[in-house]
Amino acid sequence: MSITFIALIMFIISFILIFIGMLIIMISSLISRKPRAKEYGESERDIESGAVIIIGPFPFAIGSRRIIKPLLILSIIFFIIIVILFFVLLYIPKLVIP
């Protein structure tokens, strides 16, 4: 496997992941709980949301405390996985092609 092929595979995977993320955001905005909150007897204050924006190695959390903690833990786990995959894929060509 050449380095160009690995770079192409990584580009395709990242493009697919970004596309899936955008689809999830669009679907979740369409299936909002706000219109259904009154049907289930909930007030609009019971509805919580949050987001984590990662710029470089720094996560910025937005939302309520109850939602932010799991999101930050999840983003740290994803960051560790990405760093591990980066170094593994960086050294695979060196192992295959001496």
Q: What's the quick description here?
A:
Helix content is 61%, strand content 12%. It is of the alpha+beta class and 98 residues long.
Could you explain the architecture of this structure?
By secondary structure, the protein is α+β, with helices and mostly antiparallel strands. The chain folds into two domains: 1-44; 48-98, no CATH class. The chain is 61% helix and 12% strand. The two termini are 12 Å apart.
Protein traits:
membrane; DUF131 domain-containing protein; two-stranded antiparallel ribbon; transmembrane helix; transmembrane; 12% strand; 98 residues; elongated; 2 helices; 2 domains; alpha+beta
Structural class: alpha+beta
What is the total domain count? 2
Unreliable spans: none
Distance between the termini: 12 Å
Give the strand tally. 2
Give the oligomeric state. single chain
| Overall spatial form | elongated
Q: Which range does the strand content fall in?
A: 5-15%
Order of SSEs? HEEH
The percent of residues in helical segments reads 55-70%
Radius of gyration: 19 Å
- Overall pLDDT score: 77
The profile of the biggest β sheet is: 2 strands, antiparallel
Transmembrane segments: 6-31, 71-92
Protein name: DUF131 domain-containing protein
Keywords: Membrane, Transmembrane, Transmembrane helix
InterPro entries: DUF131 (IPR002849)
